[in-house]
Design a protein that fits this description.
Strand order of the largest sheet: 3-2-4
Strand content: 5-15%
Number of strands: 5
Shape: globular
Helix content: 10-25%
Distance between the termini: 21 Å
Order of helices and strands: HEHEEEE
């Protein structure tokens, strides 16, 4: 809800230069498209497990801050928790933070009210191979606030 309100505010603020376009959350289908980079990869970095250190995203690697919890064996990304999106690895389409860092809020549709769809992409606190898959969908509702949740906006007509 906060992300939708921010998108509406930003659209209103930039209305004069947007030419009828608006900011909104990406849909789950759009997330899957940019996470898989058009080649049906299993993970944002490709289809092999485990990810290569520093070349996959910000996940719960060896430097992860959660004590007593599993970490991705042999993986390191240089960040114990979240980081600036520009430091969280760019995918082949040059989009940053698609893998890890924060779970992305996604919508079910592109409508103006955009019903919440799910959380995608995993976060800095995740090490589970299943959660890191492009097609994994987190089912917690869209209202919690936590350092592992966030959003990206798309600009559309």
């Amino acid at each position: 809800d906060d992300a939708k309100a921010y998108a509406a505010w930003l659209t209103d603020r930039d209305r004069a230069v947007l030419g009828g376009a608006r900011y909104r959350l990406p849909t789950e289908e759009e997330f899957l498209t940019y996470a898989q980079c058009g080649d049906d990869r299993v993970y944002p970095w490709g289809s092999n497990w485990p990810p290569r250190s520093g070349q996959a995203g910000n996940y719960h690697g060896q430097e992860g801050a959660i004590v007593g919890r599993d970490k991705i064996g042999g993986y390191g990304d240089g960040h114990a928790v979240t980081c600036n999106v520009e430091q969280s690895w760019a995918n082949p389409w040059r989009l940053y933070g698609v893998g890890g860092n924060v779970w992305e809020a996604c919508a079910k549709d592109t409508g103006t009210n955009q019903e919440f769809g799910g959380w995608r992409g995993a976060s800095w606190s995740n090490d589970d191979q299943g959660y890191l898959r492009c097609d994994y969908r987190g089912y917690i509702d869209g209202s919690p606030r936590y350092g592992g949740y966030g959003f990206r906006l798309v600009l559309s007509r």
